[in-house]
Structure to design on (644 residues):
């Protein structure tokens, strides 16, 4: 290995201790050196001093480790991370450039609002929604009163009309005069005026009824409004681009998961100052704000990992987000030489008992400000499973334990599948209003508007407090949206692989082996390898070429839990 | 109640039609002089019908005020 500080070759004092590690567990680190500090004497120390003089502490110094076959590991010296300066040497921390470390550090500090401010253009779109409050009974009373008032008005109008018509018959009847039968002009004028008065009365009455209907419609059924939203994939992709990375994720590309941020933004209209009809502009920015549960790129990626049982790899500036076992499924098997067990070691292994759980609980967040999350959505917001032993001899000795708590930081959004009872009632009323207003021709067309409400998102008031996760097609959730977003579907598609029957392994730790440099390179992009004829997962690989030493920790698929336990579905 | 309302509305609509037909027939039997006398009122009836169709309550009010101010 050769070391370059700002592209000038140097020799760290701890050079012989420096090896290469690939750690594929949790947040995978692909290729990092096995120390995080380097000790730089003489000319390297001078380069550091010059850098501090010219650029200061707040920009790192490029550091490159070049391996024998030309592969370079790009790092940077972080001068803000506890540097130690001595008279003749300095001890500094180095971090990977374009790596998971660097990516997550940047992502955690990068909010979507910052990106908006910096001019990042997100492909946002609008999600139509309705506010349907939990005061349906009160509204029904208003509707009944409206219907009663209109009925009374009609009865009164009909009565008056009947009187006028009978008076008209009288006025139109000629009286017998000296020149024969004549119609009195005074009677005629009086009668025509009566007709005019009736027409005006009925017209005014019907106009008033129509206006009442329109106002009731707008108050009881506010028009469809819109919230800004963005696909999860687009948010992460744009965020990665902003940080200088690219996203490569089949998990996110194949789905339409959508984030609807909370409607808590500055400069919006106040709901107490405007009638609901005026509140037409979206209440949110379409990307998560500081009030959202996923306000930064890092927190969104973490939420995606939690929700979809995913892992993130960052390799050479490419951010890969996939289900935990993705790399096992898509990579071709790589053959590495068989292990050489050292004479002073016995073969030893352990089981991945830490992956055993008694209870697996997937649950979205309930939002007390949107009662829909506690209404029908409650039934799909969680899924609960239990690992049960098949045969028990001593019940008190059963050691299955632990809770896997999967808590996506989102709440669900309700879809309006059909008209509710009040809307069905109201539809009849508005059909009547449409008829009444059409007595003179023209008229309103309110009833069909009620049908147009089906398919949009429903919230119980203008504000909600938990970021929503929807599955949208053209801005609306399809009728079968529950098969994508329900907790049960998360289990069925992403989390079921965590059942210990499907996830049992033997683990062999710190096993020495001979490995050629090209094999090591092959493993960089694929941590699954065939060992002794079995496809194994490499958990950690350490290689120090100065000492010709390589050790691996890996796990071998096993069936120790098969037939011994079953998974009981408690809620789903 | 909806059925009753629909019937009432039909009743109203029929009665209004009957009234307007009566008015139309009455005008046919009038002399030229009499027709001339009721013409402004007929115009206002037509204007009221148009205002009703347009839902223009202000225009209706204006027609009504015209007669209220002349104490007819």
């Amino acid at each position: 290995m050769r070391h370059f500080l700002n592209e000038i070759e140097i020799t760290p004092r701890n050079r012989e201790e420096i090896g290469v590690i690939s750690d594929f567990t949790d947040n995978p680190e692909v290729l990092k050196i096995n120390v995080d500090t380097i000790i730089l004497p003489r000319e390297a120390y001078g380069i550091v001093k010059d850098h501090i003089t010219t650029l200061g502490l707040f920009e790192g110094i490029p550091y490159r480790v070049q391996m024998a076959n030309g592969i370079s590991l790009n790092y940077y010296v972080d001068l803000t991370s506890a540097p130690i300066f001595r008279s003749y040497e300095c001890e500094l921390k180095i971090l990977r450039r374009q790596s998971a470390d660097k990516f997550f550090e940047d992502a955690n500090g990068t909010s979507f609002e910052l990106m908006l401010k910096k001019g990042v253009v997100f492909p946002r779109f609008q999600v139509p929604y309705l506010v349907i409050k939990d005061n349906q009974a009160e509204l029904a009373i208003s509707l009944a009163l409206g219907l009663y008032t209109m009925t009374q008005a009609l009865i009164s109008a009909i009565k008056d009309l009947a009187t006028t018509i009978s008076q008209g018959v009288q006025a139109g009847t000629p009286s017998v005069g000296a020149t024969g039968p004549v119609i009195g002009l005074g009677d005629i004028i009086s009668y025509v005026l009566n007709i005019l008065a009736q027409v005006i009365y009925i017209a005014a009455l019907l106009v008033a009824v129509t206006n009442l209907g329109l106002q009731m419609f707008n108050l009881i059924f506010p028009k469809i409004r819109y919230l800004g939203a963005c696909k999860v994939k687009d948010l992460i992709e744009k965020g990665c681009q902003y940080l200088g990375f690219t996203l490569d994720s089949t998990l996110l590309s194949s789905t339409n998961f959508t984030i609807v941020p909370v409607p808590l933004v500055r400069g919006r209209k106040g709901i107490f100052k405007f009638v609901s009809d005026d509140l037409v502009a979206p209440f949110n920015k379409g990307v998560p704000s500081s009030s959202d549960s996923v306000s930064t790129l890092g927190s969104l990626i973490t939420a995606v990992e939690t929700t979809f049982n995913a892992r993130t790899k960052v390799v050479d500036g490419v951010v890969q987000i996939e289900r935990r076992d993705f790399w096992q499924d898509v990579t071709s098997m790589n053959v590495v030489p068989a292990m050489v067990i050292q004479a002073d070691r016995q073969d030893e292994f352990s089981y991945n008992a830490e992956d055993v759980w008694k209870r697996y609980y997937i649950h979205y967040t309930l939002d007390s400000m949107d009662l829909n999350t506690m209404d029908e959505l409650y039934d799909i917001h969680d899924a609960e499973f239990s690992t049960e032993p098949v045969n028990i001899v001593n019940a008190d000795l059963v050691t299955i334990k632990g809770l896997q708590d999967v808590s996506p930081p989102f709440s669900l959004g309700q879809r309006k599948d059909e008209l509710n009872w009040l809307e069905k009632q109201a539809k009849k009323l508005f059909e009547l209003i449409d008829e009444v207003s059409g007595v003179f021709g023209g008229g309103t067309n309110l009833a069909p508007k009620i049908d147009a409400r089906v398919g949009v998102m429903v919230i119980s008031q203008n504000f909600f407090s938990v970021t929503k996760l929807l599955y949208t097609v053209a801005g609306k959730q399809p009728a079968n949206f529950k098969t994508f977003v329900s907790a049960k579907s998360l289990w069925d598609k992403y989390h079921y692989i965590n059942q210990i029957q499907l996830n049992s392994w033997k683990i062999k730790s710190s096993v020495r082996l001979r490995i050629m440099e090209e094999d090591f390179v092959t493993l960089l992009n694929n941590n699954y390898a065939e060992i002794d004829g079995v496809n194994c997962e490499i958990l950690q690989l350490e290689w120090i070429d100065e000492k010709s030493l390589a050790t691996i920790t890996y796990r071998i698929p096993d069936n120790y839990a098969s037939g011994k336990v079953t998974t009981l579905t408690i809620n789903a | 109640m909806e059925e009753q309302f629909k019937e009432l509305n039909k009743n109203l609509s029929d009665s209004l039609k009957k009234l307007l037909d009566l008015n139309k027939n009455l005008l046919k039997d009038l002399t030229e002089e009499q027709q001339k006398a009721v013409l402004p009122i007929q115009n206002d009836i037509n204007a009221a019908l148009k205002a009703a169709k347009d839902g223009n309550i202000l225009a209706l009010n204006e027609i009504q005020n015209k007669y209220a101010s002349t104490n007819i």
Notes: The helical segments of chain B are 2-29, 32-54, 57-69. The interface with chain A takes residues 1-2, 4-6, 8-9, 11-13, 15-16, 18-20, 22-23, 25-26, 29-30, 33-34, 37-38, 41-42, 44-45, 48-49, 51-57, 60-61, 63-64, 67, 72 of chain B (CB under 8 Å). Chain B has a mean pLDDT of 78. DSSP finds three helices and no strands in chain B.
